[in-house]
Amino acid sequence: MSASGPPWNDVTPLDGGPWAPTxxxxxxxxxxxxVVGREPELRRLGELLDEAAAGRCSALLIAGEPGVxxxxxxxxxxxxxxDFTCLTAQGVESESRLAYAGxxxxxxxxxxxxxxxxxxxxxxxxxxxxxxxESSAADRFLVAAxxxxxxxxxxxxxxxxxxxxDLQWLDRESSDAILFAARRLGSDAVxxxxxxxxxxSSIASQHGVPVLRLGGLATSAAxxxxxxxxxxxxxxxxVAGTGGNPLALLEVSHHLDDAQxxxxxxxxxxxxAGERLRTLYRxxxxxxxxxxxxxxxxxAVSRATATAPLSPNSSPSTSAG
Length: 321
Fold this sequence. Notes:
By secondary structure, the protein is of the alpha/beta class. The protein folds into three domains: 23-213, P-loop containing nucleotide triphosphate hydrolases (Rossmann fold, 3-Layer(aba) Sandwich); 217-280, no CATH class; 288-321, no CATH class. It is built from 14 helices and seven strands. α3 (101-107) crosses α6 (172-184) and α5 (140-155) packs across α6. The longest helix is centred in the middle third of the chain and has 16 residues, at 140-155. The chain starts with 22 loop residues before the first strand and ends with a helix. Mean pLDDT is 81; it is low at 1-32 and 304-321.
């Protein structure tokens, strides 16, 4: 298997290595990565691989809030793809303005196939990715067409699995080229699995990529994720307080003592959030307008539920219950 890019980092076990027994998401006999609570999603992802193995291009976008387990599902799929050439890229917020940074990461393992791409396309892609001595501006259409052609050439040798995490932070030039190829490859053994935060998934859906929305875990799945000493009442309270977000469940549980997990001592109010969770949501909060941030702050302080949707012209003080 070919692979490139940094390790995935959405949700990982608190203890053990990358193949620890359980992490937040489903369980499948085909996967070396055992996950909990995501059996329907894993079946759908298995179908994605089956379609590509049968010579039909397929694509899917996983959308969900930070920490819900998107990266865990990506890693589970990659663990099943031994017979695939695996091409990966991960969006990085600080690199989102670097044109073609994501495409360079993704295509580097199959660079040797570039001579088999039509000449004008190969020249444009080589210029865009710094593979050519030519320094002329790359034609974005030709770069996208070359991405399609290069993936098709690679798929003639063995099925290809394209994994893109944090699509919302991938540079626009790269995401446009990847989605261009995903939409137009037909009888080609290529599977695209993309992941993006819920509010940033529209770019993929606009290109006709089906969306799999990932919600929180149910109580039974959360119980399998949390320490065995956790009482059902405590698990239910944690699920209610976190919305079943796997990373939030792990972070909160990590800050509880045994008495609190057993239900013999009261849970802290509010539930403690770990630094990883704060980091994931910090960018989301920073992007809010001042009125929206004030509304979120008031809701958090009041611990009340809004009885009506907030509108741009509404006052936070009247919209919060």
